[in-house]
Amino acid sequence: MQTGLHRHPFLWFLLPLALGIVCREYTTLSFSPATTIAILIALVLWMCLCYRRFSRCFVSAFMALLFVLGMGCLSLHYRSLTFPFTNDKQVCLIKISDNAEEKQRSVQYKVDILAYLQGDSLIALPHHPTCLLYFPKDSISYTLQRGEQLAINARMQPPQNFGDIVFDYARYLKRKGIAATAYVPANSWKIIGKDSLNNWREKANRYREKIANYYYSLGFSGDELGVLTALTIGEKEHLSDEIRETYSVAGASHVLALSGLHVGLLAWLLMVCFGLLIRYWPALRPLLVLLTLCLLGGFAYFTGLSPSVVRAVVMFSLLAIVRLWRNEPLTLNVVAFTAFIMLCFKPIWLFDVGFQLSFSAVFAILLFFPRLNALCPTRSFVIKRIWSLMAVSIAAQLGTAPLVIYYFGRFSTHFLLTNLWVIPLVTLVMYLAVALLLIAPFPLLQGWVALALQKLLMIQHKGLHWIESLPYASFDNIAIGWVDVLLLYLLLHAIYLYIQGFSLSRLRWLCVIGIVVAVFVLIG
Length: 524
Hints:
Elements lengths: L1 H6 L1 H18 L6 H17 L6 H24 L10 E7 L4 E2 L4 E12 L2 E4 L5 E6 L12 E7 L14 H7 L2 E6 L5 E6 L5 H18 L4 H12 L7 H10 L2 H4 L3 H21 L4 H18 L4 H20 L5 H14 L7 H21 L7 H28 L2 E2 L2 H24 L4 H27 L4 E2 L6 H19 L3 H20 L1
Parallel strand pairs: 5-7
Antiparallel strand pairs: 1-3, 1-6, 2-3, 3-4, 3-5, 6-8, 9-10
Helix pairs in contact: 2-4, 2-13, 3-4, 6-7, 7-17, 8-17, 10-11, 10-12, 11-12, 12-13, 12-14, 14-15, 15-16, 15-18, 16-17, 18-19
């Protein structure tokens, strides 16, 4: 155990933290803040008493501390969703925080609850819980804008499930940070002001809107505009249902969601450019490392701080530090450290689908890619690059396939062909998009780049449409449970241990995995 702890310490730290979060989410076990602090202090004292020996007692206390820390972090998250609900209508002061979203019979707005009326007193809510408000479909409802403050009179309710639907909608909303929902009838609300929208999140939203409008002014429209905004600024409003389905069937949905692929392309460009400067001017190393971190952090802020982008930015920031400073590769420990920090900051991200898919893909790539890449020992540069891309795709697919099937009930069979087609094109699209913004002072050159970018996006779409039309492009409506997902990952772990070679400890792990799989199969 000590060997694994020393090689990948944050991997061992991550496991009890995640188990504590899961335990708090799916069981009735929870502690008050005072009790949590008391338990943590007791565990720290326990660790201090047995620190010198670094015994199993110390390790057990430390793992228990991380377990309780995970439970406490998630409890704090849910405390931020509290709101004083009543059975009657309540007068609330709210601020619209997002654009309108049209539903079947209403118009939905995401809002922040600033205060509520209790008797004759207006009680402010310092944590500003988020609420989903539904307005009737009329001409006035569509005119509301982000930043406007309204006084509403509606019955606020906690997130609820509807009928006997298996999907736990209430829990889904709570994980998204939604504390309440309400239907606001006509003539039950009034605009009382407008926020200046000077906070950092609103400024980022305005900049994204300006860039989307700028793309439109350069001639981008339809699917080309939708994919370009999704790739560069994380804005998916312009994506049609048809293009979403095409990317999903072809196995390219990960391209439309800003994640490690996009951040990795940006980080690679920065590391290549700054690496050359460091080679000739080593004194610039601290400045260029700091500049790399600022640019990656700015990209995360600019795209809305989604979990997948934050994860990728933290990970590639660490990679940039070790690459530019010490020229070391990405390791499992760096990835586990990234997940550990993110879950301490926002534990609810553990249940985010994008978070799970991102980390499962990265872990699988780190574990399986070296072995897969070594299967093609060729000296040809072109063949080597093509095989490396295929090896990365296979490794990522191994890591994400159980989760994709579990959440979406779909498995895309032509993922290798899709990635061979789409990843080089996406790389060109992103770099051309960066160039498009940088050469704004040169309209003629910018027009040529915009035209080339449009043609490139059209070629990308046509290729994915063709892959979608191939026989057996995807298997749909596959239903598996979380036990099946666990078994599949245990099987992948057993395969990894087998590939790594024989040892007594690995043989024990293989036996344990085999027994667990057999028990689940017999129970099932």
